[in-house]
Amino acid sequence: MEEVKTEVVTDEEKKNKEPKTTKQKVIFGLKIAGNVVFYALIIALFLFSLMNIRGGNGRQDFPNLFGSGILTVKSPSMSHYDANGNLKSDELFKNYNIKDGFTTADLLHAKTFSKSNANDLKVGDVIVFYDPDIKDPQTGEKGWLNTHRIVVIHKDSSNNVDYVIAEGDYYYYDQQYDKVTDEKIKYEMESRGTVQNVSIDRIKGIVTSVNKGGAAFFKWIQSSWLWIFVFPVALLLAFEIFLVIKNILAYRKEKLGLNNGQVTEEDRQKMLEEEKEKLRAELLAELQAQGLAPKAEENKPEEVKETESVENNEVQEEPQEEIKEEQKDEPVVLEEKVESNDSNEEVVENNNEEKSEEKASE
Prior knowledge:
Layout: H1 11-17, H2 22-55, E1 64-65, E2 68-72, E3 107-112, E4 126-135, E5 142-155, E6 161-167, H3 169-172, H4 183-192, E7 195-199, E8 203-211, H5 215-256, H6 265-289, H7 302-361
């Protein structure tokens, strides 16, 4: 007889198979969106922190990630506007990559610089370098990053670049260092700080592009990063923890059959028995797979066993009925036999009487 397989379906599986309502779909979508926002903020916070860690205090290096970073401008030394706010001609810088200059409202994109790339430097490049003499316009502290354009490149006897002369575009309009032949004037320019003698080891990066007006947004992020990243992440993290705890408690209530008192003790016992039966079936199946338990008919479900026992009883009852019928017929046969014996006795008596009469006549 074929083995009947039964499948235990839990309440959770039934719920998953049931079609979701519109409300459930909306809640599910909001959960997905919340998770996406949560992990996006986590990644953004991690990258922002990593950039600032690599940038240190911003005085000798700039925030960067994978060789690219951003900087804000603190002085107008690279501005192409005069004191009255009029835009000057760009003829002097039209052949360079950064030809428009930049102001304190702009955001700079730069790539990190390595000494091994020193010979790739060229006149017109706008470099980011450490300037020990520059002062912060707000704090007055010396020793900050500066951003000016290369106007002269100096090479050593091996034809390798050992230092460069950098000058701000704002001052270059008035006095072009590379065009000055008088060493005294050059010295005066260097003393005023309008030009800088920058060694290769002080160059930190090269400006690749300028985002006009982008400084305000970046400064706002720098000043409000606690509210932009940390606070939302903390809220979402607390919400995720709340959901986890809620699901754990709901799972325990369902397993224990409590369900806010709606499940009776009888139902709870029934659930526990079903769980035990499921575990027993799994254990028995594993033992049978390992050959430690016989694959006998006793492993069949109770309903199948009851059906077979009923069939066996029916088969056993049929011969009993036949025996009873035969037993009912037996007395009739015996009576006939008795009647035949009586007739035989009568015949014998008649014969004896006839024989006695014959002897008397003789």
